Amino acid sequence: MVVRDAGAEPVRIGVVGAGRIGTSHARLLAERVPPAELVAVADPRPGAAVALAGPLGARALTDPAQLLAADDVDAVVITASTEAHADLVEAAAAAGKAVFCEKPAGLSLADVDRGIAATDRAGVPFQVGFNRRFDRGFAAARAAVDAGLVGTPQLMRSVTRDPGLANPTAVPPWTVFRLTLIHDVDTLLWLNPGAEPVSVYAVADALVAPDFKDTGLLDTAVVVIRFDNGAIATAEASFSAAYGYDVRGEVFGSAGMVTTGDAARSSLVRYDAAGRHADTVRSDVELFADAYTAELAEFCAAVREGRAPAVTGHDARRALAVALACIESVRTGLPVAPATGPTPAAPR
Amino acid sequence: MVVRDAGAEPVRIGVVGAGRIGTSHARLLAERVPPAELVAVADPRPGAAVALAGPLGARALTDPAQLLAADDVDAVVITASTEAHADLVEAAAAAGKAVFCEKPAGLSLADVDRGIAATDRAGVPFQVGFNRRFDRGFAAARAAVDAGLVGTPQLMRSVTRDPGLANPTAVPPWTVFRLTLIHDVDTLLWLNPGAEPVSVYAVADALVAPDFKDTGLLDTAVVVIRFDNGAIATAEASFSAAYGYDVRGEVFGSAGMVTTGDAARSSLVRYDAAGRHADTVRSDVELFADAYTAELAEFCAAVREGRAPAVTGHDARRALAVALACIESVRTGLPVAPATGPTPAAPR
Amino acid sequence: MVVRDAGAEPVRIGVVGAGRIGTSHARLLAERVPPAELVAVADPRPGAAVALAGPLGARALTDPAQLLAADDVDAVVITASTEAHADLVEAAAAAGKAVFCEKPAGLSLADVDRGIAATDRAGVPFQVGFNRRFDRGFAAARAAVDAGLVGTPQLMRSVTRDPGLANPTAVPPWTVFRLTLIHDVDTLLWLNPGAEPVSVYAVADALVAPDFKDTGLLDTAVVVIRFDNGAIATAEASFSAAYGYDVRGEVFGSAGMVTTGDAARSSLVRYDAAGRHADTVRSDVELFADAYTAELAEFCAAVREGRAPAVTGHDARRALAVALACIESVRTGLPVAPATGPTPAAPR
Amino acid sequence: MVVRDAGAEPVRIGVVGAGRIGTSHARLLAERVPPAELVAVADPRPGAAVALAGPLGARALTDPAQLLAADDVDAVVITASTEAHADLVEAAAAAGKAVFCEKPAGLSLADVDRGIAATDRAGVPFQVGFNRRFDRGFAAARAAVDAGLVGTPQLMRSVTRDPGLANPTAVPPWTVFRLTLIHDVDTLLWLNPGAEPVSVYAVADALVAPDFKDTGLLDTAVVVIRFDNGAIATAEASFSAAYGYDVRGEVFGSAGMVTTGDAARSSLVRYDAAGRHADTVRSDVELFADAYTAELAEFCAAVREGRAPAVTGHDARRALAVALACIESVRTGLPVAPATGPTPAAPR
């Protein structure tokens, strides 16, 4: 007796941008996300798309427009440079493709609003890459909050420490807020469901690469966010952790506390004449391998089911509004009220 | 510009046995092990193969012989009942298929020797399912031993505690040694490379399900193994851990110690009026998801490269010899020398 | 052969204030600090001094002045109510007694300056109760900083969470800064040796006991301190941790990080059907028993050796200056520069 | 108003034996155990008693008999060499002194029986130095067992690893069982209340100092103990842990598990380019400072209250019986039934 069930149709995906995170996403899509079929990779740099797409059995393209025009692409994963995000989201939506865009979805609220409006108009799912929500520990933290185990959040914390600043000259201004702390901001907003941020205070400095401070490079920052339910949150980031990639969260409330995030690479603990030791993870790709897989699986599920994904453009807008308030606070030295109001209606 | 690279040919795999571990392996092969293509699942129970194969896009068969005869099957993964292992290994090898067999590879040394001889004759890779070697923590433990960070092993420990004994009537005699502690035995042999076990002492009892002791069911056991390099190892197993699935290892030597194994489900730690809490894992499939994936990837790599896999029939034979010595020790109440000598030459 | 060595003369101590912390200090002095001899306890409340002093073999007094006038008292430990600290320090110094004063050493810089001036004039040691410096974990953190293992501090954190707010009506305004966060401030200043705080931003709210907000009770607060060496520190406090008494510290720098503080009551970890559990400490007296003992031993040593203790009035002044800047920041909603300059010369 | 309460009369103690543990006990008695008054220290080695007693304000004696004859000594703490224990216990009891004796209370059951008989006859308290029972973690383990949180014990473990073998020539034969593992044996018996050991199997080797094997020095050992309630326990010891002093316990039962013992020196965790690190404790005196203090406090309380202490000569006899069975098992290579029956009636 032989039975064959073809299974559901795959979600055919094109990846735009073959950089570090694009490489990781393309590989996970091809190898770890069963509903996904990696169809094409586009990158203007000669060789980059070929090197990534080839071994994965996908087409390599140099022009993103070609990818967006392809009939055999149902959905695009945008991992291009940050400045290009908003235009690519708009173009992909216009082409009728479902859109996954790495954070931030744009550098200004207007940019993000364009993406929201375009994907709304096209009626396609629009997911933004806040991968931490898919990490087992962070997801369990949110579940504990939802279950009332923490009570009303009162003190919150989110930390991001990158293992190193590879090339200070390549870092655009305000990256620490727009690309790094935007993760922490989203995490804090998400772990305090139903609450609105009402005030933001931020300080930032160039402590890792002080020589580049003149170029606008700030590599270390601390943020305080007050919420309308009373919760006070801190977020902090550094571009240079000697010991690896360190992401942690904490929610303290009226009924208890949850903490999440562990830099240990495995369960191995080693003891010798110098004491007790454990290896630590060195990259987001290592720390968040399962979380990246889960967020891409969620994207495929949303595409298949024709529904809004778990992380939307509105979430991206909200986090960006807080990140922009941080920048304003650093500029003025004063607390700032973030513009997290509802997304303006898209003109039709 | 469009470039396509077909990639290497997939390893076409048939799974024999659609039980708990067969289900896990089939899914991992289909969804998480890129070089693998799950082609067929065979299980004599009506419906079991269909239910597993269908959603994964594979053929469902009721007769393993059909699967072994299939031209589009390069390799088989044997997850049938333990008694059938040896015959299936032999038959699969005779059919020219590469063989992955769940542990134990047989219930007697003669059984395992048959499998070794058959796969040797056929010149096909033969891997046995000692998955713990592929766990990140255990692999790091072995790496530390190899790097000399532990020195010469002196005291070793391996623990397996299952979360519950589902059906005491279905447990064959000596399961605690042949199916459970054989994992610990392999781990201990593997973490003490180059050393030979010279003496085994074991005790076992029916503490979880005492009513079934008459049927030969032993659910709790402790083993002491002495090695020719002086190391003294203990292994222990229980079929009923209230808190979940607990596998740990420890190697203490002249230069230090490594410990591995952590029952925590994620990095989340929760605090409330009753103290500090963490959830624990509840199944091997949860604890060893990555390890199972890695062992199946290793099998595919060995098949592609036409080489012996990282865990061989000889490893299976050695671990079984120690497990059988444990059984003899329980029977006699005395220490026993295990028959871990070289595999007898296969008659041609 | 019999030999007797009388040992060094004991330091004869009187404790002023038989409240919670006075009780703890008196007992530790009598039972755990060998050089100390508890001679007297003074407390105006009928019965309080008797109940404490009696079982410890000390005199009970109702008038602190009597204690200060006693010839057999070498040194006083001031654990009276906060408002009385400054006057008591001054009076004790005037009486020629060495002075240990619980934090804060006064409610205004002028108060603390009076104490510094008086003890300077009298030439007696003056120690302030920043006990965390004597905790094994915090002391090891400072040692790691001193050894260069952290590099230049860049991001710092100190947390204090009390297990519960016994009586909201009894909490004077700004207690969260003047009595609680002053510990964290001292810790942060001490863990960043040689650096000066240049800016303070603080927010505070009544989240635990909102009904008492009108009375000025703030029970939850977050502080951001910027230092002249670039380090950015956060401190946070809550008056109501459901899980116990939680004090932690973290110093992240160019070479690595140290964290300290663990709420676990012992090394016991318990596992059951609900997962993994550990009991947590419930009071400062439990968490800091050894630290309190060590700080009192340091005081006795300083008295015996006629030298300045490890924590001085100048440290108290500096921490208070930052705490007062926090209050000013909450009042104005703006960052504030703390007045941590050198103590003004005392008029003679 | 002045009130003085003289407090209870102190327990006047003489310490016999100014070696490592005698030094520790004498200091704790003088400095950390309030009811104790250290009156005298006796040690035949010239200078040893003086060096210890002098700074503590006690008499130094060279003849233990002098100490036992002293009218101002209520109780003796015996920390002499092991061979002298039994005679000293007998002599002290005959002199009417309460007796605390370091483990083992004797090298043979007859020795221990002599001590039990003598202290019974004299009607004086007799405590033996199983300090681990007073460790916070181990005590919490026993409390959890008593509270039913573990259920019926099924698998147990106790580990002792010493940081180093200072002088192999000075180690009497079977020390690993009689002085080291006797701690683990007592712990296991105590953590399985009401159960009797029925079978002991032990292996031992000279792995740390193999050159001394001929002298009878065994430095590494593993023990398996079966109890009449089904529990199977392992104990292991090594005389040379590179990383410090490591004592751990584990009780796994039908309802859950407890683990205890942590080698970390403080709550400090350090991170650098090589990963995560913690310092480990290096001696029993460091690890068990509080436990030693608590056991001596218990002794004083028993003396004051004229009652049997928490750890008695009968406990010492039971643990020794198991340790002697271990030695017999190593000699014969076979499992041995320990002679833990009731202490024979003392002849009058």
Automatic annotation (TrEMBL), chains A, B, C, D:
Keywords in alphabetical order: Oxidoreductase
Signal peptide positions (record): none
Keyword Oxidoreductase annotated: yes
Pfam families in the record: GFO_IDH_MocA, GFO_IDH_MocA_C3
Gene3D superfamilies: Dihydrodipicolinate Reductase, domain 2, NAD(P)-binding Rossmann-like Domain
Domain of life the protein comes from: Bacteria
Ranges of residues in domain Gfo/Idh/MocA-like oxidoreductase N-terminal: 11-130
SUPFAM superfamilies: Glyceraldehyde-3-phosphate dehydrogenase-like, C-terminal domain, NAD(P)-binding Rossmann-fold domains
This protein's record includes keyword Acetylation: no
UniProt-listed InterPro entries: Gfo/Idh/MocA-like_OxRdtase_N, GFO_IDH_MocA-like_dom, NAD(P)-bd_dom_sf
Domain called GFO/IDH/MocA-like oxidoreductase: residue spans: 138-258
Family: Belongs to the Gfo/Idh/MocA family.
Protein's name in the database: Gfo/Idh/MocA family oxidoreductase
Organism name: Kineococcus glutinatus
